[in-house]
Amino acid sequence: MRTVISGGRIVDSTTTDDGRPADVVIDGDRIVDVVAPGAAPLDDSRVLDARGCVVSSGFVDLHTHLREPGREESETIETGSRAAALGGFTAIVAMPNTDPAQDSRIVVEFVREQGRRAGMCDVHPSGCITIGRAGEVLAPFAELAAVGVRIFTDDGNGVQDPLLMRRALEYGRDLGITLAQHCEVARLTLGAVMHEGACCSRLGLPGWPAIAEELMVHRDIELCRLTGARMHFLHLSTERSVDLVRTAKADGLPVTAEATPHHISLTDEMLAGFDPVFKVNPPLRTPADIAALKRGLADGTIDAIATDHAPHADHLKEQTLDVAPPGMIGLETALSVALTELVESGLMSIRSVLAALSWNPARIAGLDSRHGRPVAVGEPANLVVFDPSARWTVDRRNVASKSGNTPFHGRDLVGRVRHTVLNGVAVVVDGTATK
Ligand code: DOR
Question: Is-above-0.70 flag for pTM?
Fold first, then answer.
């Protein structure tokens, strides 16, 4: 049976304006026709109502923690990929800090297979940079690259040893993979629970200084200059980090960067009530940092919006600030936070937000043969349909993720996913997952 996405307007990587009204016809896993509104025959077709909606290529998240294997109390690949589909994502890169970590072929293949079984979005495991993410011995890059791993990271930890990082970049360059760094000089953040600044002094809490991120961004830009390897900077959070990446790009270095929805919308003041839901690594920062991240997204210094979806079960997260693990969920709110913060404010167009959610991350993850494609005849049907003006209130009790640690509980946001199509199959219809 064919599927027709009817009544929407297409905004994709080839669009230059607000998009064009068109109906999209899907057969099998491909787009077989793009026609004038109302021109597609509807008999024997499933119709997805897209009136008032944008139709685009599905989103790609460079930064999802799925917790399986090892921490299934907080999330499973099935629940996490369902949350992703509800958020409009058709592909996600699974972070490697599972237990066991994703440093071997068997774990990586397990994660990919569980993703396939869930069938809600394409799950692409990242690989560790070092065995067990312990920062001592390089993981078997070639073995992991041979089974399709394209992004390597020790996320959750930064690689502290500059020699090890240099070698990782040299091997990475030769294998054509991308190294993704969690930028944190650990010696500078020992015991830290929040951004080092006025708020943290007032609360009497140990601080995580901006310099701990910026030193590693700077070091890795220089290692990138030395080795010529591709480097991606995860969850950048400070003004100076954005400036460093801007200069590195102007120098022609092959660096890319991401920012999270929470770092462009929430400040360190959120911690004033000592609620661990706002504890995250890197920490929420200042209004000046938020403004710089937004400028970076608007001028293309920051290529991607990535969620750092980090589910933690209530019994883990609801502890005192010093003990609670850092992290917040984000897959189901990413689009809405981006539209609210960036488009409603007039800073960016819908199209440029879609670039940061779809085709830029698809390219960085090496998934651009199937995701982030134009909405055109012959292309894979990995699509999202969203209403950019729908208003809704986030409720932690209504999330598909197994954990409810959203920092946006109770917030009014604009923009909501209506349908998600994965490989031609509607996995979300009218805001509800079909399996
Ligand atoms: O806040 C965070 N949570 N930052 C990270 O880098 C890791 C993540 C997690 O795995 O919970």
Answer: yes
